[in-house]
Structures are given as C-alpha cells and as structure tokens.
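Quick look at the format.
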Amino acid sequence: MTEFSPRHEIAHLARVELFSPKPQETEDFFTKFLGMYVTRREGQSVYLRGYEDPYQWSLKITESRQSGMGHAALRASSADALERRAKSLTQGNVAGRWSEDEFGFGKTFGFQSPDGHNLQLLWEAEKYVAPADLQSKILSRPSRKPLQGIPVKRIDHLNLMASDVTAVKTSFERHLGFHTTERVVDGEVEIGAWMSSNILGHEVACMRDMTGGRGKMHHVAFYYGTGQHLADAVEMFREYDIRIEAGPDKHGITQGQFLYVFEPGGNRIELFGEAGYLHLDPDSETKTWQMSDIDTGLAIGGAKLPWETYFTYGTPSPLQLDQHIEQFAHFGPGAPAPEVVAAEELAGAPA
C-alpha cells in the first residue's frame, strides 16, 4: 500500500480579514477603486467579494487600532481532507480549535503558523447567489462585472512575513500538503518561499522580515487576469493619491504581473495581472533563486522594489508608513536593518 499524500488537500485561499484604523477609507478603497461588492455589515466589520469570488465574501475589513491581518482561511478540497489536515496539525503539536462563527462558512479549524500568523482551515462554504439586478448572463460568473473603478475578479494569494521562512514553509509542506514552487536563498538562509496547493504559482508566500519581526502580513493580492488593468489602475491611483509602492511590472518569481499599493489603512495590497507560470507538471522541482539575482526575481522589466519598504514593512507595524520609510531610508543590500523604534516613542521624543 502506498503512503497517502496530502497534495491537493487544500483547494485554495478562500478569505482574508484585514484590520484597519481607517475602516471607512479602507472600504472605499476596495469598493470605489477595486469595484468589490459589500455583502454584509456586522458590528465593526464589513464583508466584501469580487465579482468572480464564489463565496459570500473573500475580504473582511474590521476596525482596529492597528492595520494587519486578522486571519486568513484556506478551503480544503473535501470534508475528509479538512479532518486529515487538522489531525496532521494536532499530531504535529500545533494547537488549534474548532469554531463555526463566520458568516457564510461552516466548521473551521483555527491555528497559528510557527511565526504566529492566525490561519484557518474550512470546507463548508455558502456559495454566493446574486440578486436579480446583479445576476450575470455569463453562467460561470457569480455576479455581474461592476461599473465602478477598475474591478478585481477575485482574491488571489497571500504573502506572509516571518522571522524564519523555513519554519513556516516546512509547516505548510508537512501539514497542509503545499509544494514550494520557488524560493530565494542568501547563503544558507531562506529569504522567501512561494508555495502552491494547486496549479497556480502560489497561493501562499512567505518572505523574511528583515527587521526581525514576527507574524506580520506582507500583502494580500487580488486578481485581474489582464495586464492592461494594471496600467489603468496605476493611473487611477495616481489621480486619487493612493500611495504606489512599485509597478506595474512582471515578477521573475512566478512570472505574475504586479502592482503594489498601500490602502489607506496601511496594509500593502497587490494587484495581480496575468497569473504567470502555471504548474501543470505534477513532480516539478523547486526552483531556487540566489539573493544575487533578486532584481530579476522581483521584476523582469527593471522596476526597483524599494528596500525601505518591500523587505522591511509589514502589518501590523510599530511605525506609521511615513515614519517607517524615513527610518529605513538608507537600508539596502548588505546593510543591517536599523533598530525599530515604535511610533509612540517617536511621537514622544524631543524635537
């Protein structure tokens, strides 16, 4: 009898909760600029979905003192797969608990990554059924394409920041059956890992936090499917003073088209154009990039992803974004990251 393989027991990234100290501005970003639909309001939270997201919501915005990720949930490929993955985590001494308290979703297993990220596994998901005025004539589309902003189709992937990339990667491989498609190393240290549970280049990625922090989110990405939308979106963001970090360009890693911006609450958001390289080969080997080739790995077209934010800023952050940029202005290859001083300390410092 062959040993059971956990590959493909996780279907895809189903949802992400973002914390925001500016919840109305964050909501406006996703609805007015990215065309997402609001499906529910409850307490201090609002639930949204892209027009091709299959479930009741893919994004939850919750008012909070700090920006960051409340949780991210992965949908299993079956009820039995969910039980197996939860059992693997438990047997691996990963503490978790079952709950059933999120709108539109059923039984859920919550746990933390080795670096402290709040993650969840689920199977039961209520499919979105559009009201008459939002029903699409395209049968494979759960709702009509909105007539507002440059609308995203769906949630795409999640990128975490960690003090130890290898520990997070190993946990995803061992317990969730993810395959590491690509990684970046600096000597013996893993700087980044891109992991997939299906044919996409990645559903979850993890990058080393150069500040030594733990449990932060680097970004959550939403999918367009065409590069032209990135060109249109960057003009829109420029016109309306949304902070642009980098792009549009194309990653060498994954070959996906990217545009990075910061939503008003301080979280980094990636807009993903074409999906890039699909992993159809079932026994493909992990591709390893050297840190010396990071410029090509990050941007084939030559865009420079800023060291003062891209490798150091994640949420929650002890600094406001402007303060972070100022403190890390001189950080770069080979230079040690400065000691992080919390925003509260900066505010109280003498002029």
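Next, a different chain entirely:
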Amino acid sequence: MYIQLPLGKYNVSFEALNLNPSIIKAIQDAGYTAPTPIQQQAIPELIAGHDVMASAQTGTGKTAAFMLPALNLLATPVKTPGRGPRILVLTPTRELALQVSEAAMKYGKYLPRIKVVSILGGMPYPLQNRLLSQPVDILVATPGRLIDHLQRGRIDFKRLQMMVLDEADRMLDMGFIEDVETIAAATPATRQTLLFSATLDDAINKVASKLLKSPKRIQVASQKSKLENIEQRLHYVDDLSHKNRLLNHVLGDEKLKQAIVFTATKRDADTLADNLYAQGHAVAALHGDMNQRERTRTLTRLRNGGLRVLVATDVAARGIDVPDITHVINFDLPKFAEDYVHRIGRTGRAGAEGIAVSFASQKDSTHLTRIERYTGQRIDAHTIPGLEPRFKPRFKGNGGKDTPSFGQKRKRSPSPFSANRDQRSFAVANEFGRNSNGQRVRGGGLDQNNRSNAFRNNSSGFKTTQYSSARGK
C-alpha cells in the first residue's frame, strides 16, 4: 500500500521541521537557509517514523532529506547493547558513498560522538575490519563489499533503526538488488526503511513492496523542471577527428571553469585524457579500473581546483558535487536516457547555471530520441563556423515535436567510428606512437603508416600508470 503525499512548496524553515538544535546549527554553518521541496516533504514523515519511497533528481537536496532525520534519530541515545550501526545507507557507487559520508559528518558535527564509517570496494580489508571492530553510528556502504563482511560475521545489525537505499534505480540497473535483499534480511524487521530513486517505475515498486512497510510516496522535481537551469547543446559530428576538434573548441571557452567529459569506455577515458594532457590541459581520468586511493586523489584535485577537465565514464555520473563545474560534455552519448540526466546534473548545481554539450554521429539517432522523450525537451543543434558537419540531419514532425532523423544515405569514406577499438583509441591520441623497439615516442617522429602499425602491434595503447604518475607531481 502506497500513500501519495500532496505536492507543493511550503514556506517553512529548518527550525519548523523539529530537527535537533545541534543539527540546525550545522545547517546554518553550511549556509542553507530554507529546505528544498524534497526536504520539506520527506523530513517530517521520516521523523514521524514512516517508511518513505521518494523520487528526486540529483541536485535537489535528497542526501540531506534522509541524512538530517537520520542524525535526528541519533540525537536520542538507545539502550540496546552492541557496536553495530544504528543507521545503514546503501549506495551504488563509491563516489556517492563518500559524498553521503561527508554529508553525515558535516550535518552531525555538533552532535556528540557520532561515528561514521564507509565500507567500499577498493579499500583494504584490514582497515575495514578495524573500523568495524569499533562502535559505529552510521555505516555507509556499497552492497557488494558489505555482503563480504556480513558473510564473515563482522557486522552486527542488532541496533539498526534505519536503512536507506540511495539511488535504488541505479542499484537495480547494476544488479545489486539481490545483495540488498540479503542485507535487509539480516536487519531487524522493526527498522525504518527509506528508498530514494530517480524514478518510481514498476521495477522500483516491486523492490519497495518487499522491503518497505506501507511507505509514504513522495515525487518532486520532474525531469523538465530539473533541467531548466542547464543549457543543452547538440553538435553533430562526422567522425572522431571532427569530434576532437569540436571538443578543443568547447574547452577553449573562457567561461569554462571546470568540465567533465564523459566517454563510453574506460580505455577511451584514459586515451582522451592523455591526448588532452599532451595539449597542455590540467586533466585526469576517472573510471572503475582505478583503485580507491587513485579515485579519491583525483576527486580531491577536482574539488580543490587542481583539475580543469575530468574525463570519466559513467562511474562519475552520480555522487560528484563540485560547484565550479560549469560544463558537462558528452563526448559519447550514454546508452540510457536516465544516465544522460545524471551526467548533465553534475553542472547547474544548487541553482547555478550550467552548460551541457553533446556530440552525436549518424549512429546516435535512437539515443537522441530516447533522451528527448525521457526529458520532455528538445536538444537544439548548434554549429561552429569552420566546424560544420558534412552531413545534414533531417527533421520529421512527431506529435508537434521535431526529432532528428539520420536517414540520409550517401557515399562516405570509412569513419573511425566503424574501426576497431584500438584504431579508435589511436585516432583520439595520435600524439604518440611506438618505435620498432616498442618504446613510446611522440607521433611526430614517425610517418602515419608506421605510427598506425606501431599502435596495432602494441594494443595496450597508453599506460594509465605513466599518465597517473605524470599528473601526481
């Protein structure tokens, strides 16, 4: 049974939400003056002890919507013995887990002796074992690593009062739901359960029916209203060389403070980052093959302004909150429309203006149609003098809206997009090659044929370790 709450904005303050004074003081220190719509609606229901399933987009303040009532719960001591957590937050990615942990420490800094522990993949087991052997108040974890500790008997959930599923739709997409259900089965049946998701579709409703008890249902921030402060631009591309020239033009914008460039694969992220670094950009890559220390170091540099450009896969589409990101560039369009929203949501944070630039080739017509249907918005095509595409996409009326069609047939030379992955990577980063001895050299010392042969003979391409060490100085 779901209870739909009425929508609307209310003129309320944080003080009116019955939060502990120590939490109010921390909120004021953070510079927040009034709760967002999701906070206005969720916090009273959670303080009242109800289960809640809520739909809220990234950047709407959903982390505080569940963390503030969680901390409010911790302000009251319990007599249940044990060292296990009273609050459990499950997240799909390490980046999001770290963001939630930081929020817990920021909002709970005036509460006495609040212990926050993060259990993530990529962290050493001995360190995590030591953390779990001590009393824990808030445990933030990714499901896979938490299952490992649970099966080894290292976690005691006797004291658990609240379980939060953050970005449940993403956990569903990543195949974590079985792990989540296993974890939930090890927790007390009396727990309060919260589910936050970008969408509340049939799949999420099915999960909620298993884990939540008569939840209050909250839906705020439609896709369209969330994207109003982000200018979306579309550039059609002929091939990879054309795409790289467009990228260089966008990165040359004086208004660009920091940017995230999204690629389809981890290898492409490393290769493109190498290419941009060779051009003099302050750049780093971020993807799932990096260990946690490397990923944390890269995100710290981004937050501290040491990086102007981050080249990332979708691992960075959620959980990164850096206020100076003015541009998001979809070098490759995402496979899923939901990921497009999460990607561009890295800019335009907290009411600021942002720019989202997407590159699309002839093969991307289906992706574009899905994205526009999902957001309910048309992405306007832009051209740059001197960098116009050779092909002209046609537009057809579709229910009063135009959608791009790439149905034109014409003879054209082979595109790097149809080449194998190694050839694509070489096209992106032809700054370098390898000589006959296998040594890495700048491409200027070899002719085109030799550079291509050298690259094909060593398909490992560019070494991430060398790239990382060059930027760690």
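The CA atoms of residues 177 and 207 lie 8 Å apart.

See the schema section for token definitions.
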